[in-house]
Structures are given as C-alpha cells and as structure tokens.
Amino acid sequence: MELEIIKHYLLNLAARYDVNPIIFGSIYIGAIPFFTVSVAWLIRNIKKKKSLILPAICTGLTFTSAYIYLIIVGRDVPIWVYFIIGIMIIYGIYSTYRKIKKELSEQEGI
Description:
With 110 residues, the protein is mainly alpha-helical. The chain has helices at residues 2-16, 21-47, 53-73, 79-108.
C-alpha cells in the first residue's frame, strides 16, 4: 500500500514539473554501466599516467545525465530541487574520488 502512495506521489511530481518519469528513470538506471566503465577507464588512465580529461568528462556526464535531463526538460522546478541536485553531485564527486583512491591504493598495495 505504501509503495502505491510513493508511486502516485512521484507520478504527480513528474506531471507537475513536466518530466517523464520513465525517461528520467531509464536515463538514471541506464547510465550506471557507462558510469562504471568510465570510472574504470579513469582509474586505468591514472595508473598509466595518461590524460584524464576524456574519462573524467565521461564519468561526470554519466553521473549527472538524469539531472541534466531534469534541468533541461523540467518546468517550474523549485529552487530546492537544484540544491538537492547540487548536493547529490557533490556527494557523487566525493564518493567517486574515494572509490578511485581506494582502488588505486589496493592495486598498489599501500
């Protein structure tokens, strides 16, 4: 019963802000494998001392793709949503950094 209430609430929000929840969810879930691959690419380039620009851009875009969709397509999105998105992006950067640092230290045996 509670799941139905949550589903109804989210669908109403999507309609209110003119965002398709299926597209948003698909982008969000669909980006996960690309994010994982881009993080692995970034780690590999760090270890091989190659350029980090392209893998870092790909990592950032895959992490923020669903939010970019919301910002571009959404209408009358309240300012607090942008703050939430900002907080989520900052947290994502921090957790990705920690993951990369941990992966590199495990592989180097530090």
